[in-house]
Amino acid sequence: MNFFFKTKQKGPVELVKATHDAMVKVESGSEHQRSRANDEISKNVASMLQILRDGGADRKVPDTSSEQVAQLAQEIYTTELLPLLIGNLGRLEFETRKEVSIIFGILLRRRIGTREPTVEYLNSRTNVLASLVTGYANPDAAIFCGNMLRECFKHEALVRTTLNLPEFLQFFDYVEGENFDVTSDAFNSFHEALTKFKEPANAFLTENYDAFFAKYTQLLESSNYVVRRQSLKLLGEILLEHKNFHVMIAFIRESANLKMVMNALNDRSKSIQYEAFHIFKIFVANPKKAPEVHKILYKNKDKLVKFLVDFQNDKNSDEQFRDEKAFLVKGIRELEPPPA
């Protein structure tokens, strides 16, 4: 007679503890220990994801009544498993990295009444958010860290906290790296952080204006075509956002910024010219131009008018573009000589 014994499934507490113990071996064990620990982690993470799915936590309107889901979430918070998984994401199997990012997103969407426990948890542990940002330095973890970051950026409190991290300025390195997939993903996250919620973005740009734009200028002058185009487009969005009025005024007062934008207007790429055009019009439209800005525009008045009259005439079927060109031409033609 054959007897079949069904292996007892681990509960939430056992799963989290076993994963926590295995992570220690992944960090510091021998090669054999790391391999076995990775197998254990992969099985446990898959089981955790199944608990969350079976409990309805991955629905658009998550079910928060499941006892197992609540127990699993609490154990993950209490044992600090999230920082451990994220900090070692690049050491895990590919499928496990993917499942960790899915679990992270499910937990982030979880609500108890009006509370968002994972948002509260992350907001009090800036090291986790910092690890997600610096995860872009590791090509094996970058895309998954990016996915988790953008899940965080759906919550204003987490955007505010991330913007205030010293690590946030490292995005300037990540968006100009050699790996196209990583740099594109990093720019998507960078863009989200600076445009999704207006209040925290404005506070960050106002408080860190000099440090931010010293680095941003390097992106605008990058030898990488994609970086330049994306950076010009994002700059236009930032400056034209009405909540960033004082940031815009500070930017268009600098004659060096005008020269940089005029150089971009003259770029070989029509796409870069077009993005530069939308920034250039802000300089011209400003009724209180800084003396040096006024001087540059007046000195180049005739050249600018001729340039703008012929500028991308293939887009003249776009009424708004045509009107904006006419407005700029008129504004430059009517420039008075700068005060002596």
UniProtKB/TrEMBL annotation:
Q: Where are the transmembrane segments?
A: none
A Pfam family matched in the record? Mo25
Q: Which GO terms describe its molecular function?
A: protein serine/threonine kinase activator activity
**Origin: domain of life:** Eukaryota
One GO BP annotation of this record: intracellular signal transduction
Xref: SUPFAM superfamilies: ARM repeat
Similarity remark = Belongs to the Mo25 family.
Q: What is this protein called?
A: Conidiophore development protein hyma
